[in-house]
C-alpha cells in the first residue's frame, strides 16, 4: 500500500525548515491555528509522476513578510514583494521537496509558484493538512492529490 | 579558493553563503549565479574551485549544468544543495559526477561533513 505522509509528517518537515532557517527555536512554531483568512500568501510546488498533486504553504501577509525578513536578514518593514515571493517560494520548495522524498516515486517537482491569496488546483483535493501558528499568525501546510489518482 | 553558489532563490543563496561562513569557510571568495546558464558564464570568466548548486532551476537545471561541465572537460568539484534528497536523487547526482548532495534544510555541520574534503 502506498504511504502518504501524515499531517504529523508535514508538521515535522515544516518545523525542521522553520527551525533551521527562520527561528532556531523549535517552540516558535505552535501546533493549531485557525487558518489564514483575508490577507494571505500561498506558495505551491507541483508533483507529477508516480504521485501527482501539490504541496501548498499558506500564511498570513504579516507571517510572509516576517519569513522573508528572517531569510533575507532584514527588517519586516523593509521587505518588498519580490523578497516575499522569493522567500515563500523557497520555503514551499523546501517543504515540498522533503514531502516528495516520502512519496512514491519517481515524480518531478516543479519550480515554486507564489500567489497573494488562495490558490485552487482544479481536479485536486486536500489529502493531508496541518494548521500551525507562527509568531501569532496562521500557517497552513497541505498535501493535495489529483482526484483521479486519489480514488 | 573561489566558491560559486548557484540557486534561483536569492534568499537561499544568502543562506548558503551565511552557512559557509558559520561552517568556518569565511576566508574563501564566494560568487553567485541565479541559474545554470549564468553559472556557465561565470565559470568561463573565472573558474571556481567548488560549485554548490541547486537542482531545480529555470533556464538550466543543476543536473544539466553538471552534465555540461563534465562534457566540456571541467572537473571542478560539484555539490548539489537541494530540497530533494531521496536515494535515487543522490545516486543520479553521484553518477553524473557530483561529489555530494546536501539536503535542505541543512546545518553548518552538514556543510563541514560534505565540504571539508575540498575546503578544509
Walk me through this protein's architecture.
The complex is a heterodimer of chains A (151) and B (120). Chain A contains four helices and seven strands, in the order αβββααββββα. Chain A has 151 residues and is an alpha+beta fold. Chain A has one domain (7-24, 34-150): 3-Layer(aba) Sandwich (Chemotaxis protein chec). In chain A, strands 1, 2, 3, 4, 5, 6 and 7 form a seven-stranded antiparallel β-sheet that branches. In chain A, strand 6 (124-134) and strand 7 (137-146) form a beta hairpin. Chain A is globular. Chain B is α/β, with parallel strands linked by helices. Chain B is built from five helices and five strands; from the N terminus they run βαβαβαβαβα. In chain B, strands 2-1-3-4-5 form a five-stranded parallel β-sheet, with helices on both faces. Classes of the chains: A alpha+beta (151), B alpha/beta (120). Chains A and B meet through helix 1, helix 2 and helix 3 of A and helix 1 of B.
What structural keywords apply?
heterodimer; A: 151 residues; alpha+beta; Chemotaxis protein chec; seven-stranded antiparallel beta sheet; 34% helix; globular; B: 120 residues; alpha/beta; Rossmann fold; five-stranded parallel beta sheet; 5 helices
Question: What is the name of the CATH superfamily of chain A?
Answer: CheC-like
CATH topology of chain A: Chemotaxis protein chec
Count of spatially separate domains of chain A: 1
Element order of chain A: H for helix, E for strand: HEEEHHEEEEH
Counting DSSP H or I runs of 4 or more residues, the number of helices of chain B is 5
Helix content of chain A: 25-40%
Mean pLDDT of chain B: 95
- The count of domains of chain B is 1
Low-confidence parts of chain B: none
What order do the helices and strands of chain B follow? EHEHEHEHEH
Task: State the oligomer.
Answer: heterodimer
Number of strands of chain A: 7
Amino acid at each position: 500500500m502506498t504511504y502518504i505522509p501524515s499531517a504529523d509528517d508535514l508538521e515535522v518537515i515544516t518545523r525542521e525548515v522553520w527551525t533551521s532557517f527562520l527561528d532556531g527555536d523549535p517552540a516558535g512554531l505552535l501546533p493549531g491555528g485557525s487558518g489564514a483568512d483575508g490577507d494571505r500568501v500561498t506558495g505551491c510546488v507541483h508533483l507529477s509522476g508516480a504521485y501527482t498533486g501539490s504541496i501548498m504553504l499558506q500564511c498570513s501577509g504579516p507571517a510572509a513578510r516576517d519569513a522573508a525578513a528572517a531569510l533575507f536578514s532584514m527588517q519586516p518593514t523593509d521587505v518588498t514583494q519580490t523578497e516575499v515571493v522569493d522567500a515563500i517560494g523557497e520555503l514551499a520548495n523546501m517543504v515540498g521537496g522533503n514531502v516528495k522524498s516520502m512519496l512514491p516515486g519517481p515524480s518531478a517537482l516543479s519550480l515554486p509558484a507564489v500567489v497573494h491569496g488562495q490558490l485552487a488546483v482544479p481536479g485536486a483535493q486536500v489529502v493531508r493538512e496541518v494548521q500551525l501558528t507562527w509568531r501569532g499568525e496562521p500557517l497552513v501546510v497541505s498535501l493535495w492529490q489529483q482526484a483521479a489518482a486519489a480514488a | 579558493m573561489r566558491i560559486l553558489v548557484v540557486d534561483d532563490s536569492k534568499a537561499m543563496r544568502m543562506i548558503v553563503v551565511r552557512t559557509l561562513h558559520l561552517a568556518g569557510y569565511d576566508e574563501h571568495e564566494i560568487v553567485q549565479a541565479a541559474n545554470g546558464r549564468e553559472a556557465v558564464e561565470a565559470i568561463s570568466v573565472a573558474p571556481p574551485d567548488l560549485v554548490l548548486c541547486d537542482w531545480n532551476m529555470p533556464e538550466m537545471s543543476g543536473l544539466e549544468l553538471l552534465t555540461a561541465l563534465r562534457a566540456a572537460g571541467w572537473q571542478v568539484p560539484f555539490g548539489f544543495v537541494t530540497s530533494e534528497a531521496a536515494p535515487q536523487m543522490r545516486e543520479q547526482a553521484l553518477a553524473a559526477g557530483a561529489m555530494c548532495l546536501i539536503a535542505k534544510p541543512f546545518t553548518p555541520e552538514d556543510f563541514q561533513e560534505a565540504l571539508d574534503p575540498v575546503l578544509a
